[in-house]
């Protein structure tokens, strides 16, 4: 049995079987469990994969069949309002807690930047921001180029030295880790490595899934996450890495597992029966990640309000602003 990834305690208790419904991920994530540390509350996969296994996984199976959000270069950045709304909400949070960020152009490094919607939101607010993206997926490159971002293709592995190119472009004012920290096999070492790229008064902007115990038990698919955070364990992780937490809270929409079973069954059944076109017509222009093709210009875009909502125990994400 593994030790706790945070406090290294070996007092871990079984929570639930690790579920992996994503076919290409099964080879790595099957026959595992989720354990909870009795000392610090951190939840994690068991056994923890090796760093080599994880690197091989992200080089190919991760992007196969399921983890590709819909994106269209022609309509970027309004091709995906889910990502754009998240980017704008993250930028707002950064400026609210570090007011100096609103006054000067920043050098921003995003790890796992995907198609670049978060970076774009910073550029939208200040054209002079310099953007740097670490993204191994080749298909994201044209999108990142549209943001004028410098792209590093390396995979960040705490056990290896950092990409020389990335180091030479530093130090950065801000590192953005949006839905990244739940993936590495050593989250504290990963954060420390990222912190080494920051300049004086450098900050990190973090967003991870919020997975309280009930959510972990109910969620139909755990892959490909290694760590499962609640507010206390995320704070501990950030502080273990030497960070000072300026802000941390839950945010986003209400977790589906916290709604009644009846509601969940009803919504699932309705999704099977009602065609997508009719749902879009009834539900408006936004359907989760996928944007109706009639949204083609920025003037059509309204932010998805749940991304800017904070507080309570039942929201889907955790966000933090951390000083290093
Ligand atoms: Zn622990």
CATH topology of the largest domain: Rossmann fold
- In CATH, the homologous superfamily of the largest domain goes by the name Vaccinia Virus protein VP39
- Give the bound compounds: zinc ion
Order of helices and strands: EHEEHHEHEHEHEHEHEHEHHEEE
CATH architecture of the largest domain: 3-Layer(aba) Sandwich
Average pLDDT across residues?
84
Structural class label: alpha/beta
Total number of distinct structural domains: 2
**Strand order across the biggest sheet?**
6-5-4-7-8-13-10
Topology readout:
Blueprint: E1 12-17, H1 26-29, E2 33-37, E3 43-46, H2 51-59, H3 81-97, E4 107-111, H4 117-125, E5 130-134, H5 141-146, E6 150-152, H6 164-169, E7 172-178, H7 187-195, E8 198-209, H8 213-218, E9 227-228, H9 231-240, E10 244-254, H10 261-273, H11 276-283, E11 286-287, E12 290-291, E13 315-323
Parallel strand pairs: 4-5, 4-7, 5-6, 7-8
Antiparallel strand pairs: 1-2, 2-3, 3-9, 8-13, 10-13, 11-12
Helix pairs in contact: 3-4
The protein binds zinc ion.
Please explain how this structure is put together:
- This protein has 324 residues and is an alpha/beta fold.
- The protein has two domains: 12-63, no CATH class; 81-254 and 302-323, Vaccinia Virus protein VP39 (Rossmann fold), CATH 3.40.50.
- Helix content is 30%, strand content 23%.
- The chain has helices spanning 26-29, 51-59, 81-97, 117-125, 141-146, 164-169, 187-195, 213-218, 231-240, 261-273, 276-283, and strands spanning 12-17, 33-37, 43-46, 107-111, 130-134, 150-152, 172-178, 198-209, 227-228, 244-254, 286-287, 290-291, 315-323.
- Strands 6-5-4-7-8-13-10 form a seven-stranded mixed β-sheet, with helices on both faces.
- α3 (81-97) packs across α4.
- The model is unreliable at 279-296 (pLDDT under 50).
């Amino acid at each position: 049995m593994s030790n706790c990834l945070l406090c290294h305690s070996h007092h871990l208790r079984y929570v639930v079987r690790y579920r992996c419904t994503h076919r290409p991920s099964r080879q790595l994530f099957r026959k595992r469990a989720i354990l909870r540390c009795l000392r610090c509350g951190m939840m994690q996969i068991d056994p923890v994969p090796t760093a080599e296994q994880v690197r091989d996984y992200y080089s190919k199976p991760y992007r196969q069949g399921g983890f590709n959000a819909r994106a269209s270069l022609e309509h970027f950045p309004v091709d995906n309002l889910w990502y754009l709304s998240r980017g704008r909400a993250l930028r707002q949070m950064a400026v609210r807690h570090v007011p100096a960020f609103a006054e000067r152009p920043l050098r921003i490094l995003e790890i796992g930047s995907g198609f670049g919607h978060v970076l774009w939101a910073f550029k939208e607010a200040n054209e002079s921001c310099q953007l740097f993206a670490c993204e191994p997926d080749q298909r994201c490159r044209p999108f990142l180029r549209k943001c004028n971002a410098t792209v590093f293709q390396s995979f960040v592995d705490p056990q290896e030295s950092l990409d020389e190119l990335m180091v030479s472009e530093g130090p950065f004012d801000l590192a953005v880790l949006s839905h990244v920290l739940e993936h590495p096999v050593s989250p504290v070492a990963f954060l420390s490595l990222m912190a080494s790229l920051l300049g004086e008064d450098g900050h990190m902007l973090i967003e991870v899934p919020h997975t309280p115990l009930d959510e972990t038990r109910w969620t139909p698919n755990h892959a490909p996450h290694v760590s499962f955070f609640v507010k206390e364990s995320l704070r501990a992780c950030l502080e273990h890495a030497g960070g000072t937490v300026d802000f941390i809270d839950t945010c986003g929409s209400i977790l589906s597992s916290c709604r009644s079973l009846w509601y969940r069954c009803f919504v699932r059944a309705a999704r099977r029966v009602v065609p997508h076109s009719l749902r879009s017509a009834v539900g408006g222009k936004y359907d989760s990640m996928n944007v109706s093709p009639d949204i083609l210009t920025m003037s059509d875009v309204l932010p998805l309000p749940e991304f800017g909502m904070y507080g309570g125990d039942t929201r889907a994400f955790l966000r933090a602003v951390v000083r290093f």
